[in-house]
Amino acid sequence: MNISLIGSGNVATHLAQALYDLKHQIVxxxxxxxxxxxxxASLVQAQPxxxxxxxxxxxxxLIAVKDxxxxxxxxxxxxxxxxxxxxxxxxxTALDAIQQSSPHYGVFYPLQTFSKAKAVDFSQVPxxxxxxxxxxxxxxxxxxxxxxxxxxxxxTQQRRSLHLAAVIxxxxxxxxxxxxxxxxxxxxxxxxxxxPLILETASKIQHHAPIHMQTGPAVRHDxxxxxxxxxxxxxxxxxxxxxxxxxxxxxxxHMSGNKN
Length: 260
Prior knowledge:
Layout: E1 2-6, H1 10-21, E2 25-30, H2 34-43, E3 47-49, E4 60-63, H3 67-77, E5 85-88, E6 105-110, E7 127-131, H4 134-147, E8 151-153, H5 156-187, H6 195-204, H7 217-220, H8 223-232, H9 237-255
Parallel strand pairs: 1-2, 1-4, 2-3, 4-5, 5-6, 7-8
Antiparallel strand pairs: 6-7
């Protein structure tokens, strides 16, 4: 398949390299920053472009840019008379946000966190698909199954729900890692000591419902420890609020008996 990437960030980089490794032809890489386009294009033997008007015919155009730019990109593609499939890679953007870009449009959303410096095993990345027609979905499905063993056809609302849950589970967790790291640095303690605990926590939920794996003073209703921790955080009121809010959430969840 001949594929062009619109975008040169983390998602575009990983998708371009994964598709290139599968022997797909990466035709062009677009970025408003020509240097970024050149950098990614050089990795996949593609042509770098920094104007959408320079796009050549392709079977698939993957829009991998920030959510706020997707509709604008689609509007700029509209006059180009594109006949290939145009698909965005966003978890929270509606399918119809790009309907003006081509008669054939869809969603090709990889449910994973991406960083350029960290390789990703695409075979384990859930790919969520949506399309303007059964034919578009079929073609995206064929491509997706070459990349991943986990391919799903979900509506915009289902995909948005997954994206919200992903933000809570991933982005919020990483924020907590960051504030824990900052707190320990202030105390002269090595954050690396927490890494086995973090790995064990993540490992448990691979085989058990998260609610059944909850531990700590909040689920035990150990008020003495909760109060002590709050006092220890008096000099960091924002973190103290986070601690109190999450502790209250844990206690409420377990008091409600919501353990399905």
